[in-house]
Amino acid sequence: MEFAKRMDRFGEGIFSVLLGMKKEQLAQGRHVVDLSVGTPNIPPAQHVIDALVSAAQDRGNYVYAISDTAELQDAVAAWYRRRYGVEVDPRREVVSLLGSQEGLAHIALSVVDEGETVLVPDPCYPVFGGGPLIAGAKLWYMPQRRENGYIIDLAEIPEEVARAAKLMVVSYPNNPTTAIAPLFVLWFGYGIWSKVLVTVLITFFPITITVYDGLRSAKTEMAELLQTYGATKKDIFLKIKVPCALPYFFSAVKMAVPMSIIGAAIGEWLGAKSGLGYFSRRMMTQLDGAGVFAPIVLLSAAAILAVAVVNLLEKRFVRWRGES
């Protein structure tokens, strides 16, 4: 069978290549963690599932879906107004699709003619460039560099290219959303241990280095004095070094407590099915500013409360601090 010449613009799909590599590894009996396709791993809310089940059981719904219902269009327009403050015409500017990829592929066929320029991010999801290529467009890639925080630098686009461009594809947050893969989630799963490990690594070095400096701060003259009275190394450690290190220890803990809370939230951000970090990330994808910052306020309050508790413990165990 001879395909249309426009298909010559495409090579082998990246996901097909990765799938082939995955099958080869599985055939060799190796364990494979597949991060190639961003398939959802979190189910929709229960009320959405219930509504879908109820609609599937309604025999009146088994008709040709020629167009969207007015109820759906009005609901979408109301959601856009509530969420983004954007007014859309529910009859002229709302249409349901089989998925966002379908819309991205077909919109180029609607607005781009053969040979016109389309600006797409680099890297990008394949359909960002595939849709315009089907329409015969010329692609101009806008790099997302690490030094720019993976944000497109619009100033780098030549003026003649910008003026000639018929369409720009913008996707925020872009891929990659992080510079380092969440390895802890891969190794330890979505359970509590990946969050514990992130928290431990964030707090270990500040506490260890500070306490070490505290132990070294003990005056050698005092140790030598105790030795003249027959004190053992254990006595010197418990009577001089530990008391000298306690203020350093509590200072380190007061620094580590907020960092540990941040570490736990980062662990949830990288991979979790619940928690404040997960909630904040989910609200970010919906551009809900209040939803993003609400967990930050709660985490800040928890950190302040925890530091206050540490202060009380410090006053209890380090009674001599502040004395001349």
Give an overview in words.
The structure is a single chain. This protein starts with 13 loop residues before the first helix and ends in a 7-residue tail after the last helix. The radius of gyration is 29 Å and the shape is elongated. About 3% of the residues have low confidence. 57% of the residues lie in helices and 5% in strands. A 3-stranded parallel β-sheet has the order 2-1-3. It has 12 helices and 3 strands; from the N terminus they run H-H-H-H-E-H-E-H-E-H-H-H-H-H-H. Helix 4 runs parallel beside helix 5, helix 8 runs antiparallel to helix 10 and helix 10 packs antiparallel against helix 12. Helix 5 links the parallel strand 1 and strand 2. With 324 residues, the protein is mainly α.
Query: Gap between N and C termini, in Å?
Result: 93 Å
Based on Cα principal axes, name the global outline.
elongated
Largest sheet: 3 strands, parallel
**Mean pLDDT across all residues, rounded?**
80
Low-confidence stretches: 173-181
In spatial order, strands of the major sheet run 2-1-3
